[in-house]
Amino acid sequence: METPTPEQIAKLPKWAQEHIDDLDRRRANAERTLTEFKDNQTPSEFFTEEYVCTGPTGNQFVKRYIQSHKVCVERDGVKLTILLRQDEAGLDLQWQSTDRLMNEVALVPTAFNKVKIVSKEKMR
Fold first, then answer.
1. Distance (Å, rounded) from C-alpha 62 to C-alpha 74?
2. What pLDDT does 71 receive?
3. What is the DSSP-derived secondary structure letter of residue 87?
């Protein structure tokens, strides 16, 4: 898709020109906000990573750092805790059921270096 020239935009009705200007301002503001957000992040061991559209500059992976030594995820009756210990190398992983009465979960290998953690109720 080609970018319209200023002469082409000048031929449009005034409301269309104002709308295009507004969209351009919003895009520029969104790009600036994303850049500032990324620049203000202090890298850490924990982060989320998403593939986002950044406008004409293209798409990219964006990291959002989490300043902590412990991260928990809960889903489908399973709680996974990832813990960094200052006195030991590596990562500690702990998993458990979110249901205190049914504290059974399974670690199911699914591929090389990949597992799935499921609650007893979600097992086949």
1. 23
2. 94
3. T
Question: What residue type is assigned to position 42 of the chain?
Answer: T
Query: Per-residue b/e over 46-78, b at no fewer than 16 CB within 10 Å?
Result: eeeeeeeeeeeeeeeebeeeeeeeeeeeeeebb
Would you state the torsion angle of the CA atoms of residues 52, 54, 55, 60, taken in this order, to the nearest 10 degrees?
Answer: -70
Residue partners of 17: CB distance under 8 A and separation at least 6: 9, 10
Which SS3 state, helix, strand or coil, does residue 76 take? coil
Averaged over 17-28, what is the pLDDT? 92
Lowest-confidence region among 38-42, 45-49, 58-62, 71-75: 38-42
Task: Tell me the torsion sign for CA atoms 96, 97, 101, 103.
Answer: negative
Q: What token pair was written down for 76?
A: 């489908």
Tokens for 52, please give them: 């986002």
Furthest CA-CA distance within the chain = 71
